[in-house]
């Protein structure tokens, strides 16, 4: 202790000299850890300012040094297939007057949403793998989370609307043109877009108020909810808001989808002939496949018990949820639908070709 009453201590690990009274040393000085950099001592307010604009490290693929070329080729291939398949679906539906019906209107919107959803994540992953710099800025991270949540919620709402469309087509066929008229379809789509973006914006607005004073390493390949583990602010309000939005955007739509298919299956069993049952089921078979794939991977990623959670399993499920599912959706709908196959043949200049 010096004559001025100031205690001089030396950090046992970093050997950084810190001066100040013993009672407020924790508030006056913190040790900032940075990967492959020496430890430095900075005032608390400065650290808060720096962490609010610093980069985050996306570490999920940085450890796979031997497989960087394979990962880049795999993600690039899936990205190109996703873009090609979904854009072909959009152009085929818009160019064929026979497909200007509510079902194909919603399908074209699904393809557009899947295209935007993929563009939110994959290009940044490709850049990180190619440059070997697995970083994303604070602003970029929040923007990526916003569009990721908005398009994921929009996917959820749209699948619910498509399930309702199937229900009306099969269970209320005489009222289909009245219930699913052009104005009602546009209203359903507008409501889905508005709700998804409002819910995503409210969460990102809360998250933008957080301070991140822990390690900036995220064990993921894009910015997602694991980012909350790095916050040193109180996240209680965010968690309550997240719980409410999960109920509104997850439980309610899933309940509507299940209720619709209960009525659809009940109606199918009333059809006397086997051929008639197959024809009715083929109307919604593709949608049911997409719904199962979507909700199955979502539950595997976000609702897995923490005791059995594995980071590697979470990464694989996230890849399926964010990249594989949008890639498969156009093929699931096109390969099982004769009208879509005919429209695609015409779009590709093979109008004289016939499909079975």
Descriptive tags:
two-stranded antiparallel sheet; mainly alpha; globular; 11 helices; three-stranded mixed β-sheet; disordered C terminus; 356 residues; disordered N terminus
Q: Can you tell me about this structure?
A:
It is a single chain. With 356 residues, the protein is mainly alpha-helical. The protein is 65% helix and 6% strand. The strands form 3 sheets. A 3-stranded mixed beta sheet has the order 6-5-7.
Topology:
Layout: E1 7-10, E2 17-20, H1 25-28, E3 30-32, E4 40-42, H2 44-51, E5 55-58, H3 68-95, H4 102-131, E6 135-137, H5 138-171, H6 176-179, H7 182-207, E7 217-218, H8 236-270, H9 274-302, H10 311-335, H11 338-347
Parallel strand pairs: 5-7
Antiparallel strand pairs: 1-2, 3-4, 5-6
Helix pairs in contact: 3-4, 3-10, 3-11, 4-5, 4-10, 5-7, 5-8, 5-9, 7-8, 8-9, 9-10
Q: What would a concise description of this structure say?
A:
The chain is mainly α and 356 residues long.
The best one-word shape is globular
The biggest sheet amounts to: 3 strands, mixed
First-last Cα distance:
91 Å
Question: Helical segment tally?
Answer: 11
Quote the beta fraction. 5-15%
H-E string: EEHEEHEHHEHHHEHHHH
């Amino acid at each position: 202790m010096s004559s001025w009453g100031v205690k001089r201590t030396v950090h046992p690990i970093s050997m950084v000299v810190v001066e100040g009274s013993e009672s407020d040393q924790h508030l006056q000085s913190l040790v900032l850890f940075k990967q492959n950099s020496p430890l430095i001592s900075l005032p608390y307010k400065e650290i808060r300012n720096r962490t609010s604009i610093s980069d985050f490290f996306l570490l999920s693929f940085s450890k796979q040094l031997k497989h960087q070329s394979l990962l880049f080729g795999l993600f690039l291939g899936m990205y190109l297939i996703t873009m090609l398949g979904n854009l072909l679906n959009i152009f085929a539906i818009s160019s064929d007057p026979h497909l200007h019906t509510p079902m194909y209107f919603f399908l074209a919107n699904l393809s557009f949403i899947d295209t935007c959803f993929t563009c939110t994540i994959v290009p940044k992953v490709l850049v990180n793998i190619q440059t070997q710099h697995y970083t994303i800025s604070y602003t970029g991270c929040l923007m990526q989370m916003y569009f990721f949540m908005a398009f994921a919620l929009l996917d959820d709402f749209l699948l619910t609307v498509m399930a309702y469309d199937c229900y009306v087509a099969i269970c209320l066929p005489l009222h289909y043109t009245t219930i699913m008229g052009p104005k009602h379809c546009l209203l359903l789509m507008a409501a889905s877009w508005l709700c998804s973006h409002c819910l995503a914006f409210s969460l990102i607005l809360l998250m933008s108020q957080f301070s991140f004073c822990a390690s900036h390493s995220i064990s993921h390949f894009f910015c997602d909810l694991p980012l909350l583990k790095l916050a040193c602010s109180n996240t209680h309000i965010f968690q309550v808001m997240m719980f409410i939005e999960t109920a509104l955007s997850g439980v309610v739509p899933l309940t509507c989808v299940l209720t619709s298919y209960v009525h659809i299956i009940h109606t199918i069993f009333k059809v006397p002939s086997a051929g008639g049952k197959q024809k009715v089921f083929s109307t919604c078979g593709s949608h049911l496949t997409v719904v199962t794939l979507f909700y199955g991977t979502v539950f595997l990623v976000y609702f897995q018990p923490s005791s059995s959670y594995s980071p590697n399993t979470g990464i694989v499920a996230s890849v399926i949820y964010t990249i594989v599912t949008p890639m498969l959706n156009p093929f699931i709908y096109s390969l099982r639908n004769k009208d879509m196959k005919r429209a695609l043949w015409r779009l590709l200049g093979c109008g004289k070709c016939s499909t079975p």
